[in-house]
Amino acid sequence: MSVYVDFIQTTRPNKNWKYAKGCHLLADTLDELHAFAKRLGLKREWFQEGNARYPHYDLTLGKRKLAVRLGATEVGYEYFRKKRRVQCTNQ
Q1: What is the rounded distance in angstroms from the CA atom of residue 3 to the CA atom of residue 26?
Q2: How far apart are CA 23 and CA 20, in angstroms?
């Protein structure tokens, strides 16, 4: 499985996200992403698509730690930007 988390960053709480910090969970394929999210106990309705720059789930600090323990690879935000650029080019 190729699943990734970026680093914790400050976020703005809103009606859908009450936390002051968070990060993103991504994967090479949507099947991998949803399967891993299920292992973390995330609800499918929390999946970010549509207006998001890339398909992902938002994670709290605790879920990020669990994701890393379960095998997610830690990468910086720049990795996501490059990966998304390649995905858009290949579609």
Answers
A1: 6
A2: 11
